[in-house]
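request received
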Amino acid sequence: MLFLFLTGIKAQSFISGTVTNRKGEPLTGANIYFKNTYEGCTSGKEGQFMLKTNLSGSRILIISFMGYTNFEKELILNNSKLDLDIILKESSNSINAAVINAGFFEASDKKKSVLLKPLDIVTTASAEGDIYGAVNTLPGTQTVGETGRLFVRGGASYETKTFMDGMLVQTPYTSRMPDIPVRGRFSPFLFNGMVFSTGGYSAEYGQALSSALILNTNALAEEDVTSISLLSVGCGVSHTKRWDNSSITGSLDYTNLTPYFKILKHNLNWEKEPESIGGTVVFRQKVREEGIIRVFSSVSHSHSSLYYPNYSSNTNDLIQLLNNNYYLNTTYNDMLNDKWMVKGGVTYNYDRENMDIDNSYIKDNIRAFQAKLSLINYLTESLSVKFGGEILSKKFNQIYNMVQDSIGYDLNFNNSISSVFIESDLKGGSKVAARIGGRIEHSSLLNENTLAPRLSIAYKTTKRSQVSFAYGIFYQTPQDDYLKFNNKLRSEKANHYIMNFQYQQENRTFRIEAYYKDYEKLVKYDYLNSPETDSYNNGGHGMARGIDIFWRDKKTFKNSDYWISYSFIDTKRNYENYEEPATPTFVSTHNLSAVFKYWISKLNTQVCITYKYASGRPYYNPNNDNFLSDRTKPYQNLSINGSYITQLFGKFTIIHFSVNNLPGFNNVFGYTYSSEPGTDNIFEAHPIEPYAKRTFVLAMFISIK
Amino acid sequence: MKKIVVNTIIFLSLSIYGQDSLYYNSMKDAVDSMNNIKSLEDFNNIANIFQRIAKAEKDKWLPYYYTGYIYVILGFKQQGSGNIDEYLDIAQENIDMAMELIQDESELYTLQGLLYQARIMADPQTRGQIYSPKAAQSLEKAIELNENNPRPYYLLGTNLFYTPEAYGGGLDAACPLLRTAKEKYENFIPADSISPNWGEDYNLQLVEKCQNLY
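response:
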């Protein structure tokens, strides 16, 4: 009543107009109002609005709409009639804005436009719960079944590095017996996000020639819970305690493959099947409003011994392997204020590996320490700068004693790599995003400085599609096995050029990426483990080019999700002891992975089927004069798994089974040859095959809250 | 009888809000229209009204609360479109603003719980694990702050109602909570006619389903 009365005596102004975006499309539902007043209206179907007001004098009109930057305009109101055509700019934080993505595969619970999520990893059939196994279904990776490691875009496995919360992990894989695939040391449940970069990655990361797998751990645990896992190969128990601002999880795992290898049909001759015990402590402390301290600590011991065929003596060598590993990773993240973010961390890694071969032995000791600090300044909504530095110091010791060749060494080196990096993220509205940066590294052992520029640009072509480009130079110090004999080597170098097109619509993603890589200063040697310093040099080189295609669809079939990856690669390199440039033994020209997941709600069961195909790999044949010109037959694998969710004694329980290579395809990874030719002057070939035609896992996970 | 009491309280609070009548009247209009919504555009329009009041008043938590509430509802309505988070992010901003203005408000923790439930909708398989405990914690906190508030019971019950038994849900788990919510709704008297007072009708529908199935 009072309101009506007041309106009667005041002069009125009329403001009308339309609200559109920069393409001229009308925006329905925008809020149009005068600052600090209740007066306003909402734009209609055609973006039109009509506002009547009794306000007078100078007033600020605000137009706001979800996903767009607010528009403000000062108006003088005095019985006025105004007509305004308002064009809103898409906010660079909008989910439709361009994002840097050339060379990237991102998996996260938080981000909106991701391709893979942590749960997807756990439920991928061929992966058997291993992070690297799941990443191996993404384009750009090679199927190298006998190693279990990642080989990316023509790069050997040492060229891919793993990072946990921004810090380098020195020993991401379990230790290796010949021809038996290794696994990652970390459980996929530790992580809430993952970036798999197949090239062109941020200047924040160094010491990886080809690829970076960046894992981000969970923040505070949600609630108190005890979990028990029973597997066909071992068991584990973990307990989590949550307080208001902190949480701690302790877990113990024990693995023993003795019963498993008793049941499984396999071609290995174990003296002692692999046995390992490990413990992990994960501590989280919230600091102030947005800060968090993360402490991750793990310790493990494993041992096994195996009779391995020796084709020079035609006997079996007894190989005994013992590994102790300790890893500590502590990081701190915080917003200092609205504009500044700080990220810092320290890690310590100790790895001891003893390998006894009959009466000979190799004892490796690696101690590595890393400290890193970076600051990010969010200058404006469309410009941020990140810079920082790190020190990575490594002590290597190897005692090498070969009785039959009466060779003995005690080899040591210390290397400290100091680095600084700077990188800037720019956004040109919602259409363009760019990241420009560089990294300078100094190695104390090699006494060498390197400068590595990096550049990434993304351009949004339509609402759902974008093109991107990435370029970068990458350096990596030579592998320990060369540095221990020669510390005058230079860093190996790779240049990456990547073009990417991505189309994303609701629950469908299509990506195609073309790349060219060019390798310089790769290490060459006369023969493996040559003790002569002069037998090592940086005279190697190589190139890789190819196309990676990815398609994922969670929409077409109800309750299902599938993705298909295809990679084509053409690569040659002249490194190690190669006689001439050749395609290395770990490369298949064509790689295909298809993963299909289906949720059967009636049975509370998720099933997953994966199929992998890789064309034949080169292998060295001493009977053939053409170097590395032989090819194995193609590799094929069809794996299946299922997870059944139920309640056991009122506790949440998952029962899981998986069968690897269900149809029993006969796969050959390559051949080893006898060191002496037979009577017919032909070297005898011995195929390298999977240790079992089919493998299986049966597991039960129980959570007690 | 209940109606008379409510009307008396509304009358009393009207006089308390005397100096703030523009705020009170505008809020009451908006809340009334919110309860008679016919289309998605109406939702948007009313959210805009609450947003304007929130921005102009600066120190009142209720307009932020309602803006957040409507954006959560809009989020639920986006199911399957992949845009849920965009709405929920705005809802969260508004809840955060409201939380800064008033501490330990049971209704805000209730709304926070509802928002977490909506986050799950965007990707149940991945997010269930993370947001289910978060939602439960917020709703339990809401009960701790005001055990007479029926809404946290209603939301806990609804959630269990639609959760399969294997995950600890099902009617056996849900119905006792929904019945408790019904009792609490019957005895619930909002502080005034602009205070939160939603959920009773739908709770009744579910309670009826509980009865039919037993």
